[in-house]
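Q: Could you write out the predicted structure for this multi-component system? I'm mainly interested in how the pieces pack against one another.
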Amino acid sequence: MTQPQNAINRSETPKDSKPFHLRPRLSPAEKGSRYFFLVCAILAMGQMLLIMVFLFSESVGLFFDRPDSQGLSVWEFLTSKDWYPTYPNPSFGSFSLVAGSLSVTFVATLLAGPLGLGLAMYLACIAGPSMRQWLKPIIELLASIPSVVLGLIGMVVIAPFLQNVLDVPTGLNLLNSSLILALMATPTVASLGEDALSAVSKDIQDASYALGATKWETIWKVSTPAALGGLSTAVILGLGRALGETLVVLMVAGGAAQVPNSLFDSIRPLTSTLSAEMGETAIGSRHYQALFALGVLLFFLTLAFNMLSWYLSRRWRTRR
Amino acid sequence: MLITGYGKLARKRREALALLLIRGLALFVVVVLGALLAFIFVNAFEAINWSFLTEFPKDGMTSGGILPAIVGTLYLALGSMLISLPLGFGAAIYLAEYAKPGPLLTSIRLGITNLAGVPSVVFGLFGLSLFVTTFGFGRSLLSGCLTLGLLTLPTVTAAAEEALRQTPGSFREAALALGANRWQAVRQVVLPAALPGMLTGAILALGRAAGETAPITLTAATAFSPALPDSVFNEVMALTTHIFNLSTNGSHIAETKPQQFGSCLVLLALVLGMSMVAILIRAKLRKGRKWRKNHHQRQRNLVLLWRFPGLEGHQFRHHGQRGDRLHRSLRLRQIDFFKALEPDERFCPRGKVGRRDNHRGRFHLRPWGGSCRYPKTGRHGFSEAEPFSQVDLRQYLLWTKAGGRKKDFGTR
């Protein structure tokens, strides 16, 4: 009996020792790779815990008595305005530093929020496809400008400008650093905001047009509320970027540890304090521990912002 | 300024004003950022020449080149990728391919998301206390690379996971149905499809690592090094810290202006160049490769089979009893392979089974549908299926899972 050409010779069939349902489900490669990837993921997550553990363990000594000095109370650390770490009788109060960080972040967000969201609206709703195709990559490119370059611009261009035009004692102040931080955060806000606005369903926009709404009314009363979660996430992430930015504030914020009273006061945010003073302290000294305590503070501030954006994006999901 | 009322005219004016405002904002942002880049270019122009790129700094940094800083930045950025790529890709593969929804997945994802928002200076502190002090690496290239690697890890992971999630589920399902285990499916089907996207994220992270300053000042950087690093335990110079030092420390701030802006330009060229490459690749990927339901389906099938040279000759589950194997000749004939995969009675509902199979007892594959023996019903017959190229595998799987009827099963 001749077999058709494409029929397969049964004698070639490998003789498996076990039927399918009795074979082990996972091969060694399968099992091994699975655990390898799991370990990678847990390491990536565990880094978060590791950071916390190290920041705490390095800073906790500040709050306990030492042979040569008394421990600081947590309350005093949080509320005292005096940050004089190198005085013979040092005081480590973080309030003015936190105030500096929050004020510069707040002003920068006031500037970057409207700018970034306006740009996002332009990109998502107004610009034509070819314009968007060019503009979006350019915006993303600008988001990756290193902060030290922007800091240099702030020192060389904006500081003399502020000093001459507004006639303030120093150009290195809250306003200058807010301007630069806003410049840094704007592309981030714009890019994320554009994603959120583009994700809004075309159907509800069309419905709005069909009801006779103008373009602006559609953007403002339909797209924006629908994308509110994404837009708020965009602003908060931009804000987080401004809060954690080190080099810009180190270079252009002036560096005086005080609670700012006006836009033209020199300030000293947490990040710049950390970066400027860490190089000059002995490892294990009280100053070193105080700096790590500032690190803990900064860590939890940014964590709070992240959780907020996470919560908001879940609270107002973009309607697709 | 404020236009009140909802008359036709007021609405038109409000519209015009609002759109003008938004266009103005957009133009303003772009002009400011463009002017900024132009300013750097103009100022750096006089400093940039060949010796600037290839010499060591001289005369207290007021003249000479920035070679050690360029080399240091490259070492740091590339070294950090050695840490973050394996870990980040591994974590992304776990998250996208293996993890099941649950508390573990939620906590891992939450951890990685939050990690992305941690300020770089905090990573610097962490690196200082872990690598520099606890591990005793000192301020060195090694500490810097490790710190930057951890810093870029969330970026790499998020981008890679996104790329993996964008490969269609039908790829995995087809591979798994072919009898591949998860690792084979990932390695031979999903990874090749997702790799360009994953590498794009990696390049973006590389640019970010090259542009960081604060963690490097704490863990790796030195103001001046007379020689290039020859071991991982040497301190290095970096472009970012070089710019920072020139512009804030020392007594020659005004004299080193050209040096500062020259370094800025080199740094920008490095960072923006990397980002541009990544963004161009991504744009091309987005444009060129849309994994749509009925898009390139035939090619996809072929690709899947070609991805499985090791699988030819393997037994498939339903063939096990019959002793049939996927043969090379069948592979080249674009076999209708999902039918080869799972032709159980669900695919051929009783009412739909047509003629009796003349080739009963012999496995027979045809592009328009195969004959098979239905293990549960014991029936024989042809299925009246569409050619595979017109059928969406994912819909098919949904259909079989839902126990739907054949007419629900979308064909095009």
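A: Regarding packing and overall arrangement: The radius of gyration of chain B is 30 Å.
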